Input
Amino acid sequence: MAQGHPGDGTSDRERLVHLNAVLRAIRNVNQLVVREKDPETLIRETCRHLVETRGYSSAWVALFRDDGGVGPIAHAGRGEKFPSMAASLRKGDLPACVRGALDSPGAHVIHDSAEDCVACPFHSGRTGRSAITVRVMHEQKLYGLMGVSVPATFTVDEEETGLVDEVGEAIGFALHAIEQDEMGRRASEELRRERDITASLLDASPVAIAVVDAGGVIVQANAEAERVLGLRKDGITQRTYNDPAWHNVDYDGNPFPVEQLPVSRVLREKRAVYGVEHAIQWPTGERVLLSINAAPVYSDEGHVAQIVCTMQDVTAQRRTEAALRESEEKYRSLFEQSGEAVSVVALDGRILDANPAWLMLFGCTRDELPHLNISDFYASPGGRADFLRRIAGVGWLKDDVRFKRRDGTVFLCERSAVELKDASGAAIGYQATVRDITERERAATALRESEERYRSLFDQAMDAIWLLRPDGTGNVVNKAWLDLFGYDAADIPSLTAMDLYADPADRADFLRRIAETGFVRDEVRFRRKDGTVLECERSVAALKDAAGRVVSFQGVIRDITERKRAAKELAESRENLRLLAQRVQEAREEERTAIARELHDRVGQTLTAVKLDIERLRRVVEEAHPELSSLVDGMTKLVDDGADDVRRISSDLRPGALDDLGLAGAIEWQLDQLRPRTDLVLTFRCDEGDCELDASRRTALFRVFQELVTNVVRHAGAKKVDVSLRREPGALVLDVIDDGCGIDAAQVNDRHSIGIVGMRERLLPYGGELHLEGAPGGGTTARVNMPLP
Output
C-alpha cells in the first residue's frame, strides 16, 4: 500500500488512488492476457503497464526455454541498466531475488535492494526501494520469472505481493493459453496436412478406392476409381453401391447377386472380404472386370461406420491371361508340331523337354528324356563346353555344329540357341532349335563345285558370254567376249549395251521381245571397239529372282560373220549348182527328145520301108517258093517287134502323151500302160483346176512320178497304189500312196539310194521337195511339192 500518516485526510485519497492504480494494472494485464498471442509482446506490454499504470519504478520478465535456458526477456523503467542483468541471467549468474523466487513458492521480497542486492546492476543505487520477484507459472509449469522494483513511497504488504503474484499467475495463464493455442494450431495444421497427404495418397494410389457409409452410399472415391468406373467423382458419390445403374454381372455377363456384392457381405458378416470378382457392364455391352477387397471401419460404439473398398481393374489382366493361355497353347502346339527339332536343356545339360521332331532327329524316345544329357550328343568331346563359353554373356548363339544320334551317326546341324532366364534375370537353361543340314551342305558343296565348273566353263568358253542388268549396265564378260569385241577388262565398268549395237533400234527391239517371251535367239549386228561391224548369232535369257522380277540378262554371242559370208557363197554355189542341174536336166531332156524323135522319124521310117519290102518279097516267095513263107513271116514279125521297141524306147525317152495330153493326161496314160503288165489296182485323182506347169517342171515332176511308180512295182509288193495331183497355194502336190511293205527311216536317209537321190536331184533346180514316210507293213506315202513358177 502507499504510505500515509494515521488520521491524515489525504490517506483516504491516496488509498483510493492506489486502488484505482491496482485495478487499472489488473485490467490492463487481463486485457493483455485475453488479447495478446505473442509471448514477447505480452511480457513487454505487461512490464510497461506495471510501470506506467501501477507506478512501479521498474519491471522485468524473463521466460525460460524448454531446455532450461533463459529465453525472451522484457523490461520497463531502467533502460540502459537492464542489458547487464539480462546478460547475467543468460549466463546463469542469478541475482538474489531470482534465486529466492526459484527456491520458494510465492513472492520473494527484498525490502532494501540497495543493501541486499549490492551486486545486482538492476537495483544498484535504489536505496529504500523494495524488489518483489515471483514465478510466472501455470499448472505446475514454470514459464519464467517476473520482478518489480517498488518505490519507497509504497508499502510492501501482502496486498502488494499478492498483486504481483496475481500478475505472474496471469502471465503464466496467458503463456499457457498461447502455448495451448499454438499446440492446437499445430495440431490442426498437422491434421490438415495429414488429410491433404491422405487425399493426395488416395488420388495418387494406383488402386481404385471408394468409401461407402453405413447406409450404402458411396461418399468418397479417388481418381483411379473414376478411371475404373468410368465416371467423375460427383457421379460416383451420388450413387449407392447396389444402384441398378451399375448393372453388376459376373465375368461372363450373367447377373451378379446383390447379396454377394462385397459391401453387402461386409455389412452382413461384419468382417473384411477379399477377392470378390464381378464386373460392371455398360450399356454398350463393354464389361469392366473387377477384383474387390472390402474392409469395415468401426465407430467408437463398435458399429460399422464405413466400408473401404479397393477395386482392381483386371480386365486387361484377364485378357492378358487368356492371351497368355492361348499363347502357351499355341506354343505347345507349335512346339509339338514343328518340323524343326526343338529342345529345352538345363544348365547342367539335362534335357528337360524335346519335341517329336527332335526325338526323331536324334533317334530317341520320350521315355528316355529324363536320363539324357545333351553333352552325350556332341560329336566333338569339347562341344558342350565350347557352347557354354560362346553363349555366356551374349545370351544367344547361331552356328553350325556336328551332333551324333543315339546310333552314333554323325550329322551336321544348323543351331539357334537362346538363354532362358527367370524373373530376376538369372540363367536357368537354354532353348535350342536344330536343323539337319547335311543334305543342304552337300547341296551347297555341289553348288560350289557347279559354280566353279560354271566359272571355268564361263572363262574357257570359246563363245562370248555376257551378263548384264536390264538397264544395260553391270557387265560381266568372259575372255572370249573381250577378244571378240576388242575391249580390255578395264573398259567393262563404263560400258553399256547401247555402245555395242550397230543399229540402236535393235536394242529397243530386243527389250520388247525379251519382255514378251523371256528368251531371244536371233542374229544381230554388233560393233567392235575399233568400229568394225560384226554379224553375230545371239542367244539371251532373262534371269529372274524368287519374286519373278528380271534381274539380269545372260547372253551367248557367236561371231558368224565368216559363216554368213561362207553361207552366202554356199548359197550362190548352190544356186549355180541348181541352175547347172536344171540345165543338165533340160539338156538331157532335150537330148532324149531329140533321140526319141530320131528313133521315131528315121528308124521308124526305115523299119516301115523294110516291112514294105518284105511284103513285096512275100508275094514273090509265095508264088515262086512257097516253102519260104514261114521265113518271110518271121522277118515280118521281127520288123514289127523292132517297130514296137522303137515306139517304146521313144516313148520312154520322151512320152508323147506329156506333150500331147499334159501332166494329168500323161500320168493317166502311164497308169494305163502299167495296168496290163501288173496285178496292181492303180487309181488316179486330179483336182479340178489348173494342174499344169511349164515344160521343164512338168517333165521333172512326171519323171519323179515314173520313178515312184516303178519303185512300187519293183520293191513294195503292194496291191494298191493311189495317185493324186492337186494344186495348193504356191505349189503343185503329187501324192503316191501304196499299201506295200513300207519304207523305213534308214532307207529314206540312205545317201546310196540312187533312186531317191536321183528324184531329189531332179526336183532341186526348181526348189521342189520329196517327202517319204512309211512303216514296216504299213505302206509308204510319197509326197512331192513342186513350187509354182
